[in-house]
Every structure is written in C-alpha cells, then in structure tokens.
TrEMBL record:
GO process annotations (BP): glutathione metabolic process
Superkingdom classification of source: Eukaryota
Protein name per its UniProtKB record: Uncharacterized protein
Cited InterPro entries: Glutathione-S-Trfase_C-like, Glutathione-S-Trfase_C_sf, Glutathione_S-Trfase, Glutathione_S-Trfase_N, Thioredoxin-like_sf
Species annotation: Helicoverpa armigera
Source taxonomy: Eukaryota, Metazoa, Ecdysozoa, Arthropoda, Hexapoda
Any single Pfam family the record assigns to this protein: GST_N
GO MF annotations in UniProt: glutathione transferase activity
Domain GST N-terminal: 15-96
Domain GST C-terminal: 102-228
Gene name in the database record: HaOG200226
C-alpha cells in the first residue's frame, strides 16, 4: 500500500494476492491508488528496474512481456494496470462507485482506460524513456506538442464535469491521475490554457488515495528525471 496506508482503518487483507511493482512507474501507481481507494491490503514486492529485476527468470514466468506491474490472485496473473484495476474493482468492491455497474457508466470508464493506454501512456513513454534510458536530457519538441494535444483532449473531456467519470472519482480518475501527474513533471500543465484540467489535478491530488499511493513514487520519478538531466548536462 502507499506510504501512509498503515494509518487507514478497516483494511481488508488479501493474503492470496501479490503485486510486483516499481513506485516510479505510473502504471504501478494506478494499481496502488486503486487498492488504497478500496482499502485493500495485499503483498507488495518492490522491483528495481535499473537492476533489471523485472527480467529475472522468475519474473519472466509471470510476465514474458517484461513489464510492471504484475498482479497475482491465486492462479490468476495479470500484467496490465487497467485490467488489474478493473479486476480488483469488479472482484473486491461491491459499491459500484469506482467501476459503475450500469453499462453506460462502465463504458465511460472503459473509454477512459483505452484513451490512457492508447494515447496518454505512449506519450509518457515517448517523452520520458529517452531521458531515463537513452542519454537525453530534455523532452523533445514533438513529444511536448503531443502531450499538449492530449491536455487539450482532456480539457474537453472535463467540460461540464467535476470528475472524468461523473460526480465522484472513479477508476477513470485514478488511472488518469497516475499518468497525468507524471506528465505534468515533464510538461507542466498551463492553468490558463487548461483550467479544467489544472483544477481537476489539484482536486485529485487532495484525495487520500493520491496522497498515500501516488505522491511517493511521483517524487521518486521527479528526482530520477532531475538527476539524469543534471548528469547529462554536466
């Protein structure tokens, strides 16, 4: 769970579930926020990506794609953060607030999940990976333009809405929060150009699940980006 999760009350412990994760990964943080929002406690295993621990023989058995997070519930193994979040909400959360039970509400969350996996996350990778792994010390102009285009899309999605999913935070907001808060480090959101998106990011950053499960990894990512940029510029 997040750094402050031990302070929360009435957690449900799922001893048969394990999450392999790296806190600086937005995808891992989405799952961690989903867990905290549902007050679920599971076994968590930290994986050092820089040391290649996600490519060990044991991890390759679980996930041949060599990505994180990896989630295991008894014999079920999932390696996509969106699938993990919807599984957890469908299997262990009965309220229907995070993952609406009506087909329309569920479809809206699915639509946002697809936008995150098909647009937002690839743009995060395109901007961040050259800095993390390819000896680059800045976000390239094309990546900045692509991220700004995504911000414009998200601004439009929030028209007439407080939250992406409706009147309260859903998995849409949790998944978007992990990616958008990370993109905001690479390409800061201009509150004058994107006032609805900027206001949404402030609201979601005050949610307990964001505080407990996203802030630590977000700070780690920010430090890592800063350290690499300083080394490569010197």
């Amino acid at each position: 769970m997040g750094t402050s999760a031990s302070k929360r009350l009435s957690q449900t412990g799922l001893k048969h579930c394990t999450l392999w994760k790296a806190d600086r990964s937005p995808a891992c943080r989405a799952v961690m926020m989903a867990l905290d929002s549902m007050n679920l406690s599971i076994t968590e295993v930290d994986i050092n990506i820089d040391k290649g621990e996600h490519r060990t023989p044991e991890m390759l058995v679980l996930n041949p794609l060599q990505t994180l997070p990896v989630f295991k519930d008894r014999e079920l193994v999932l390696s996509d953060s969106h699938a993990i979040c919807t599984y957890l909400a469908g299997r262990y959360c009965d309220s229907g607030r995070l993952l609406p039970k009506d087909p329309g509400g569920r479809s809206l969350v699915d639509q946002h999940m697809h936008y995150n996996s098909g647009t937002l996350y690839p743009r995060f990778r395109a901007a961040a990976y050259p800095i993390l792994y390819e000896n680059c010390n800045f976000v390239m102009p094309q990546q900045i333009a692509d991220i700004e285009c995504a911000y414009s899309d998200l601004e439009s999605m929030l028209l007439g809405r407080t939250w992406f999913g409706g009147s309260w935070p859903t998995l849409s907001d949790i998944v978007f929060a992990s990616t958008i808060s990370t993109l905001n480090i690479l390409v800061p959101i201009d509150k004058n150009r994107y006032p609805r998106l900027s206001s949404w990011l402030f609201r979601v950053s005050e949610e307990l699940f964001f505080v407990t499960a996203n802030r630590k990894g977000l700070s780690e990512f920010s430090r890592r980006i800063g350290e690499l940029s300083q080394v490569q510029q010197s």
